[in-house]
Amino acid sequence: MHTYHNPLDLVRERSPERPVALVRPDAVSVAARWFQAEFKGDVFYAVKANPSPWVIRELADAGVRSFDVASLNEVELVGEHAPGSRMAFMHPVKSRVAISAAYFDHGVRTFSFDTHEELAKILDATGQAKDLNLIVRMGVQAEGAAYSLSGKFGVESHNAPALLLAARRSTQDLMGVSFHVGSQCMRPTAYQAAMAQASRALVRAGVLADVVDVGGGFPSIYPGMVPPDMSEYLAAIDRGFADMMVHETTELWCEPGRALVAEASSLLVKVELKKGDALYLNDGSYGSLFDAAHMKWPFPVKLFRKNGEVVEEGLKPFRFYGPTCDSVDHMPGPFYLPESVDEGDYIEIGMLGAYGVAMSTRFNGFGETDIAQVSDAPMASMYGLAKRSIATPRPEAEERKIVRFSRPKGAAGKKRRRR
Ligand SMILES: *Cc1c(COP(=O)(O)O)cnc(C)c1O
User: Which domain range does residue 326 map to?
Assistant: First the structure.
């Protein structure tokens, strides 16, 4: 992978025709070391946030030896780039073929589930193995998260005790409980509340967990979404764990995805056309900008003029369109850029290391992305690599962004309220 001092050098030297994922491996390493030093338990990287081989290798080099995987492809990916790692298959719905291959061919021993049917399937597909770590995924309230992850998965509280008991009886190894408070969780206390909910289910089941897995959800920094310090999340988890009925050797696990990789990649795109306040780019919602389109996240941006000139004054709000012919390929922003931005210029879109390149498709013949390493700092950082905030140029813009943060509730929200 070619390394440039910064994106401007890359623009000057290469004038890239395709979008370029700008990667900053140090940012992965710093985040991984921080989590391992501060979290009082085992850190599993949730591979889906960014499955790039360089990420897996960088994490392994930084000492991460545990991975949360959700498909056989992810199992194989980790096996190839971080051989010898421990993997936890945390998708609550798996195919029998995937379970068998993970168990027999890749040494995976940890599986999660949220139904009796899936537990039976896991036992069956592993030949009634006795050395399984069985993790019950619980549904929890996702207050303060940008994305709810409890609508689709997680056993409801009143059904949890029976499933915990069944899990306890099905293994001589570890039995545990897991949940996901929702991605980009803005409230540290959400973890404590979820742990209390898990604890009540365990008490009702009359079993002690060997593993308490607090899942992912740890936030990164985006304009209008500057979370509390990461140490507050870990402190809330410490309090939650202290309040749980557990035994002396109960293990604490977490599964951060976003928090380990968000800072570590940005995207360099080219402006193909300017039409008023609309900039037509060579990447969009079918490429690495899914969240910018579908969640309307206003990612931070920087302009690099084609002639190498650096302009920062005269900021004006722009919206982006991606290269496909689909009209959902629209990123409303607002993205604040110098008014003089024009065709042929380049824009760096920051904080796209999580759920960016990972979401890219080849729809309409686009989506091919080059990759280059840069050694400058990310646009913002939870770990001291850069500022802990991202400037939001106008107050009214900040307000709009904060409003957008509360995601429209879908079926998940309704289901929770009914209970
Ligand atoms: C997606 C996912 C994660 C990672 O979530 P982040 O919000 O990126 O930290 C962790 N665990 C499970 C089970 C997931 O599905």
Answer: 3-21+262-392
Q: What is the rounded CA–CA span in Å between residue 151 and residue 408?
A: 13
Q: What is the percent of the chain where pLDDT is above 70?
A: 92
Query: Same domain, yes or no, for 200 and 348?
Result: no
On average, the pLDDT of the chain sits at 91
Q: From the CB of 185, is ligand 1 less than 6 Å away?
A: no
Separation of 218 CA from ligand 1 center, angstroms?
9
pLDDT at 393: 52
Asked whether 258 lines ligand 1 (CB < 6 A), one says yes
- Give the three-state DSSP class for 246: coil
DSSP annotation of 39 reads S
Pocket test for ligand 1, best of 91, 149, 290 (most atoms within 8 A of CB): 149
Per 3-state DSSP, what percentage of the chain is helix, strand, and coil (rounded to 5)? 35, 20, 45
Residue 403 has pLDDT above 60, yes or no: no
Which residue, 261, 294, 329, sits at the end of a domain?
Answer: 261
Answer yes or no: is the C-beta of 216 below 6 A from any ligand 1 atom: yes
